[in-house]
Amino acid sequence: MNEKTAWSLPGIPTLLLFFVAFVLAFVLFLNGAASRNPLGPVGGMVLFGLLGFLSKGFFQVQPNQGKVMQLFGSYSGTVRDAGLRWTNPFYAKRNVSLRVRNFESSKLKVNDNDGNPIEIAAVVVWQVVDTAEAVFQVDDYENFVHIQTEAAVRQMATSYPYDSHDTGAPSLRSHGKEVNQHLRDEIQERLGKAGVDVVESRISHLAYAQEIAQAMLQRQQAGAIIAARARIVEGAVSMVEMALEQLSVRGVVNLDEERKAAMVSNLLVVLCGERGTQPVVNTGTLHH
Fold first, then answer.
1. What CA–CA distance (Å, rounded) separates 34 from 28?
2. Which of 1, 76, 205, 279 has a CA that sits 20 to 30 A from residue 59's CA?
C-alpha cells in the first residue's frame, strides 16, 4: 500500500464560509420567529445542526506531520499541508510524525565472526517517508523499528571479527565506515516495508564481553609489544650496519670478522636492551 494525497480544503477560507452560513442560519431563525412562520426556525435549527456536524471536518497539521485519513476503515489518503484544513467530517484521522528521529539500541551481547562474545550497541537516525506503509503494513511502526534494528545489529556483528589482528581483513574496530554502511543497509532492508528511511546508523558502543575482556587486553598488549620490539630490532640492525660501514670507510680501525661479530653483539645489546647498559672501559690494546 503506497501513500496518496487525501482530499482537503484550506481551513481559513472554509472557516469564513462557515461563519457566513452561521449568520444566515441565525437570520433565518430570527425572521421565522418574527413572522411566526414555523419553517424559518426549523430551517435555522437544521442549518445550525448541519454546520455543527460539518465543523468536525476541521483539523490542524503541524510542520513535518502527516494526517492519515480513513473512511469507514478504508485508507483515503494522507494530508501533509501544514496549517488549518477541512475535509470530509466522516474521516477518521491519525497523526504520523515525519520528523527525523533517533534512538540508541540497548547493549547487546553477541558473538563476533571469530566466535568471541562482545558487547555492541548502535545509534540509528530514521524518519517515516510513507505514512500508509507505516500505519497499515506493520502493527506499531516505532516498536517495529526498535526490534528490527536490534536484529540487524546482531546480524551485522556476526559478519566481522572484533579485531583483524594485523591480517588486514575488515573488522568492527578498524573499519568503522564500512561497518556502519553495512549496518545501515541491514536496517534499511528490514524497515523498508514499514515506510521508514534510515538516514544514518553507527556503532555507539563496542567492547569485549566481561568474561574475556582481560584475556583480550593481554593479547592486544602482547601484539603491541611484539610490534614495538620488531621496530626496535629493525632500527638497531640499521644502526649497527651504518656504524660498521662508517668505520670501514673512514679507516678508523680495521676489524677482523671475530671482532666485528663481538662489536655487533655489544651494539645490539645496548640498542635493544630495555635498561641502560653500564659501560666497561678497556684501557689496554686491541689485542690480547
1. 10
2. 1
Residues 29, 23: contact at Cβ < 8 Å?
Answer: no
* Residues 209-246 pLDDT 10s: 777 656 656 666 656 666 667 777 777 777 777 777 77
What is the secondary structure of 35-48 as a DSSP string?
A: TT-THHHHHHHHHH
DSSP string, 69-122: EEETTEEEEEE---EEEE--TT-EEEEEE-S-EEEEPPPEEEE-TTS-EEEEEE
Phi/psi for 286 (5° steps) reads -75, -20
Phi, psi (deg, nearest 5) at residue 132:
-65, -45
CA distance 26 to 7: 30
By C-alpha distance, which of 195, 193, 186 is closest to 128?
195
Residue 244 CA to residue 240 CA, distance in Å, equals 6
Model-level pTM? 0.68
Nearest by Cα to 60 from 87, 32, 84: 84
pLDDT digits (tens, 9 = 90+) for 118-131: 899 999 999 999 99
